Each structure stands twice: as structure tokens, then as C-alpha cells.
Amino acid sequence: MFQTINTQLENNILIITINRPDKMNALNHQVLAELALAIDDVHGRNNIKAAIITGAGEKAFVAGADISEFLTLSPKQGEELAKKGHVIFQRIETSHKPIIAAVNGFALGGGCELAMACHFRLASNKARFGQPEVGLGLIPGYGGTQRLTQLVGKGRALELMLTGDMISADEALAWGLVNHVVQPEELLPKAIAILQKIQTKAPLAVTRIIKCANAALDKDQDGFELETQEFGACFETKDLQEGATAFLQKRPPNFTGE
Ligand code: COA
Questions:
Q1: Do both 85 and 17 map to the same domain?
Q2: How far is the CA of 55 from the centre of ligand 1 (A)?
Q3: Among 69, 133, 171, 242, which one carries the catalytic annotation?
Q4: Strands, E assignment, 156-252
Q5: 74-123 pLDDT, tens per residue?
Q6: Partners of 51 in the beta sheet?
Q7: 198, 220, 239: which is the final residue of a domain?
Q8: Whole-model pTM?
């Protein structure tokens, strides 16, 4: 049903592959629209417990927004495009189910921003990260100025955004931009293994942890207050009863997400 992305459900994990390899998987309007629908599926379908976002082909994760769509935009349309990107990427960031990026190649501009909107990132050793917008007379517009600064600190973020340079997967690892660097053939298996481990944990607790971690970076929220409330709310769940009982009975828990 999609034309610019592929989706595949494996072990209750939706693998979303941005699929324009001849254009380095650049994010045009159609990709953004289809990605938004796939994220709706992740949120809404009970048989999907988590998602991975990756890119088709060997070269690119996503090499940015589609530059060919830029030349005719007015300032107002540019603002609207950024807002549209913000909405979709915020829906990824605030998803109540884990969504991780498996960065298989170039993650530039909107591609780096897409990876940063995910809950965390894995990279193949072929991945390259950068925000080259400044070289186009532009700035990052899908949350990059904010999320890059949050993830790697202001000094490193500004150097990357002001020079437009790319960093390697190993540098991204050293900067804390990605959690793991693996061989290309290990990328999806590693991402799936991490998400399968998360699936053995209490689903409501997983959701609450994501919510509280997001609050840490939200100026409008008191993250400590939210953590207090969410911690308390765990005590009305069957999952806490099951988890604590299983621990005391020295057996693995069987969580139902209730
Ligand atoms: N938007 C639109 N088209 C893009 C694109 C983008 N962000 N990135 C790559 N493409 C297209 C190229 O125009 C080219 O199309 P063509 O074959 O019809 O000419 C095709 O993808 C292959 O890219 P090419 O540049 O030939 O590959 P390369 O291996 O020499 O370089 C990159 C790869 C990723 C380094 C280079 O494509 C690049 O710098 N892309 C733009 C990155 C960028 O500025 N992103 C921020 C956008 S806001």
C-alpha cells in the first residue's frame, strides 16, 4: 500500500524502511505522509509492540529532506514544512511504544533528525551523521537544532551544524549520538534483539519510562513531579504484582500490560 516506504512485521516489531534508494531515501512530501501513517499503525495496532526505522539500500539511511522540493517554497510554506516535520517526529519521540533507528548509511539533515527523534539509535560502521543544511543556505528544520544540542551538547552540536561536516559511526558513538556500532549485517538483528528484550519487560512501565525521560527535556514539564506520579501509578497495575511476585518466587514474570 505504501510507495516510498516498506513495512514488515517481524516478532511484533514493525520494521519501517524508507525506500527511495535512488534518491538516498530523501524525505519528500510522500515519504513524510507515509511515515506518518506507519507511525499511526505503531500507535494503534495491538500486534505491534515496537518499531525500527531504517533505510533501503547500502548507502543511505536518509540523506535529508528532498532538496528538489525547496526551490519554490515561500517563507510561509517553509515554516509549514518545518511544522509538519515537527509533528511527525514528535509523534515518534512521544510514542508509547519503543521506536529505534537502525542507521545503515548516510543520516544527513532530516535523516539525522529522524534518527534523533527515535528513542535511541544503533548504527552500522558505514553510517555517517551530519547536519549539512548550512551549506544550502538553510538551517535544520525538523528539530535538529534542539535534539542534537540535547543529545551531544551545545559545543559539539554547533560545530556539526555550523561546519556542515559529517562524523563517522565511531565518532557518533563517542559523542553519545548512537548507542552501538555494528557490522552492517548485524544492524537489524541487534536492533531486533534489543526490542525483544524490552518486550519481556512490563509494557506500562516501558511507556512510563519513555514519558518521564521525554519530560526531562521538556521545559514545560516538571520531570521529577511526573516521575513521582508515574511511579505511584505503577502500584495499581497487575504488572507490578506479577513482576514483584515472580521475583520473590524466583521465576520469570509474565506481563500482560494491565
Ligand atoms: N534531496 C534530494 N535528492 C537527493 C538528496 C536530497 N537530500 N540526497 C541525495 N539525493 C539524490 C541526488 O540528487 C542523486 O540524484 P540523481 O541520481 O537523480 O542525480 C542521488 O540522490 C544520488 O546522490 P549522489 O549525490 O549522486 O550520491 P553520492 O554518493 O555522490 O553522495 C551524499 C551522497 C549523501 C553525500 C549526497 O547525495 C548529499 O550530499 N546529499 C545531500 C545531503 C544534504 O544536504 N541533506 C540535507 C538536506 S536539507
A1: yes
A2: 14
A3: 133
A4: 166-168, 180-182
A5: 999 999 999 999 999 999 999 999 999 999 999 999 999 999 999 999 99
A6: 14, 99
A7: 198
A8: 0.97
